[in-house]
Structure formats: C-alpha cells, structure tokens
Specification:
single chain, Glutaredoxin, Glutathione S-transferase Yfyf (Class Pi), Chain A, domain 2, four-stranded mixed β-sheet
Amino acid sequence: MTLRLIHFPQSRSLRVVWALEELGIGAEIETRNLDRRYLKSADYKSLNPLSKVPVFFDGDVRIIESTAIIEYIAKKYADGRLTRGAEDDDFGAYLQWLHFGEAGMGGYVNMLIAQTALLPEDQRIPAMKVWAVRETENCLSFVEESLVDNSYLLGEFSLADISLVYLLFLIKITRNGHMLGEKTNAYFKRATERQAWKTSCALAP
C-alpha cells in the first residue's frame, strides 16, 4: 500500500488528512503552501489536470474529489469504519450528508467566500453576494433543523461529519460565522475538539 496525498492547509485536502487521522491510516502527506500560481503550473497539472485541490494517490490510482477520497480509504483500508452500508438503517442519511457537504452546499459557500472575502472589493457583485448569502443561509437552516443536541449527524461521528464540518470551517474563517445557528455552532465546536481534527490542522509546510 502506497498512499500519497498532496495537502494544502485549510483547503479541501484537510478533509482527507482528518479522515486518515480518525481512521488511523498511514499515508505520505506532502504539505505545501497554497499558491494559486503553483496550482496552474505544469508540475502540479501533471498531478491534477484541473489545477484543483486535493489530489490523492493509491499506487497508480488517482482521485481528486475529497469526499470520494475519504469514502475510498475508509472502505478499502479501514473495513468501512465511519461509513454506512446498504444494510444500515441510516444508509440514506449517511449518503445525503456525505454529499450535501460538497454537492449540496459547497457551491453556495464557495460563492459566499468569493463575494465576502476572496475577491477585491471592486470585483465583487452585490447581486451575487445576496444570492450566495440567501442560499447559504437556506442550507444552514436545514443543518440547524436536522441536528440533535450533543450528537453528530448520524448520532455517532462519521465521514458525513468530516464532509460537512469542513464547510462550516470555511464559513467561520472567512468571518461569516454569524450565519451559523446555536446548535450548528455547538456541533462545530464538538467536532473540532476531536484530537484528529487538531492534529490535522497542525500540519504545516
């Protein structure tokens, strides 16, 4: 087994590092500074042709979607720990939250971050900001209504939490944390007090 991850702190590769830590799976983690120019370089495009983050290798197998990577490593190298199978009653909920953390909510959060933090003021579009805020708030309301106090999405911690908590992390570090509800804030704190999260966040180039 030769597992290799190109990791950029605070990027979506954080999901993968966190999952590896939670599952106790060893991998070669190459931690690099996030430099947009480097992502466009021929060197990096030879690893990920889309110039995106992350990129993960299992020998000759390459995967570039963070939620796919964490499901892959859990099913292949950790006997499915932190996942659910078709025989489980909460299999549907697991799949919903695992994918909601990227496919359902990620696009809105990306636009929110662009329009409130990343883009220079003169490049921001007010109407896009209004739309991004509205749609992100809609997603966060769904999260807030779905959470149970002192618990995780499925009751116990799973990869679904890794998927969703990363987006909450992005919202918070871009000074949009006021959008999170009371239960969502408590949930975020609960998840980020886990030692695996702290260890993952401590990785630096």
